[in-house]
Structures are given as structure tokens and as C-alpha cells.
Amino acid sequence: MASENGGESTLTVLLAGGVNLAIAVLKAIAGVITGSSAMMSEAAHSVADTITEVLLLTALRRSGRPADRVHPFGYGKERYFWALLAAVSIFASGAMFAFYQGVTTVFGEPVEQESPLVAYGVLAIAFALESVSWLQALRQVRRESAEEHRSVAEHLRLIDDPAPKTVLFEDSAALLGILLAFAGIGLHHVTGSAIWDGLASIAIGALLAVVAYTLGRTNRGLLIGRQADPVLVRGVRDHLAAAPEVEALVDLQTMLLGTDQVLVCARLDFVDTINAGELERVCVRLAAELSTRFHDVTEVFLEPVPRTDAALRSAVLERYGDWKPSA
């Protein structure tokens, strides 16, 4: 599963990167010819997207390294770090440049528009190419959401692989940005006022800022240490609570270590009739069962504790409120 998703994520990122690089060149040429600030903002937008793909490819490569002495849980979270830098790149090199172009156009000296047909043609080509990349990202997200039996919106909220989400969001922003640029250039063409061009550039900047913030917030949560998919958490909870040797599941904590990598830590009150040797064998068996049943579970730590311990109970209640791991 992980290798298949990693391969498709790489394909999605490579396709998006190639498309964005070609579009960036076309838009920059058209921007110079036409003098359109919206077109130059779109060129900066595509450059930012290209940088994003490079960062995502770095994330996919570095996060796959095996665990070692320095990083015993592996390098899975590197994917979130580089994806966070990609979100910063979208804002720094895309949104800020677009804002600058828009403000200088609206409040600066009027600019003559030249060869608007060139801009229309480039935007049409860009829209067609971006659609190819967008469809690939959407196809991957829809397939993954169907495999997880949840809606696309819910899958995007819970996804632990930032690559397809980043590409889908940036390609969606790219398509909207092209439409905004087309509207701004068209209104400039019709009215003769460059203000429309500048306003379109500002709108593109605002769009990129929203996308950058959304992706940055997602990756921040993953870097901090988000819990696993609630469906997986419930499955782990039910499996442990149903074991005949377990009297009560006292506490359960999970954390995403990377894409398709979940850490499970559980405190269990075992029945008093088993001895120390049996307890060890039960813990080994339960850990193996969790890893077999839930393929994303890569690390399992089980701790025997008495459920009557007041300090432990207080800590669990403070974290979860009235939630109880088991009845």
C-alpha cells in the first residue's frame, strides 16, 4: 500500500512539476509581450508551483529512508517538513509577488496593454495543461478516498500524505488564477483601464495566500504529531478491548509517524490470573495482531497498568474529558 501510494504520488508530483515549468515560461513570455501584471503574477504563480514540486519530490525521496540509531522511528515526518516549506514557497514567491504587481498597477502609472490575443492564447494553453495535472491529482485523491470508504472532503482533512493534497490544491488555485487573469486582461482590453489587470493580480495573490495558509496548517498539524485516522483508532481500541486477557483498556494514544506509519501506545489492565511470562507473550501477540490487521500500524507499545490508579485516571480524563477507552 505504502509503495503503491508513494509511486502514484511521485507520478502526480512529476506531472505537475513538468506542466508548471512549461506554463511558467509561456506566461513569462506573454507577460513581457503584453505588459500585463496579471500575466506576470500568473508566471510567478507557476514558478512557485514548480518550486513546490521540487520540494515535494525531495519530501518523497527523503521520507523513505529507513530508521537508524539517530531516528529510531524513521524519517517519515520529513515529508511533512518539506511540504510545509512548499506551502511557504507558494506564499513567499507567488502571493507576495502577485500582491506587489497588483498594487503597483492599481496605484502606479497607467500601462498600455499590448497584444492581448497573445495573453488569451497562452492562458488557454495553460488552462488545458493545468487540467491534465489537476485531473491526475483528483484521480489519486478520489481513488484513495474510495479505498478508505470516506468522502473526498473528509479524506483531504484526514490525509497523511501531503503530496496529492498539495498538488490538488495548487492546481485548483492555478485554474482559478488563470480565470482571474483572463477576466482582468479581458476587462482591461474592453475598458482600456489597467485597474482591472491590477485587481486581478491582487485577487490571484489572495487566492495563493489562502492555499498557502491551508496547506501550512495541515502540515503543521502533522509535524506536531496528529493522531491516526479515527477509524483506525476505533479498530485498535476494539481489538485490544476484546482480547480475553484484557480486563480494561485504560488509555490509548496514536500518532502519525509518516505516510502509512502509525505509532500505537496503549495502557492495559490485564486479568490477574496470568503470570509475568504469560503477560509478555500476550503483549507480543497483541502487537503482532495489530500490525497484521492494521497495515499502517508500524510501532506498538503496550503497558500493563491498574485501571484504579488515580493519577493515571486523572491524566486520561484531562486529555480526553469524559471519553473512556473502554466500558
From TrEMBL:
Residue ranges of every copy of the Cation efflux protein transmembrane domain listed in the record: 14-223
Keywords: Membrane, Transmembrane, Transmembrane helix, Transport
Record's bilayer topology term: Multi-pass membrane protein
Alphabetical GO biological process terms: zinc ion transport
Subcellular location, record wording: Membrane
GO molecular function: monoatomic cation transmembrane transporter activity
Highest rank taxon of the organism: Bacteria
Keyword Signal: no
InterPro entries: Cation_efflux (IPR002524), Cation_efflux_TM (IPR058533), Cation_efflux_TMD_sf (IPR027469), SLC30A9 (IPR040177)
Entry-linked PANTHER family: HUEL-CATION TRANSPORTER, PROTON-COUPLED ZINC ANTIPORTER SLC30A9, MITOCHONDRIAL
Protein's recorded name: Cation diffusion facilitator family transporter
Organism listed in the record: Amycolatopsis albispora
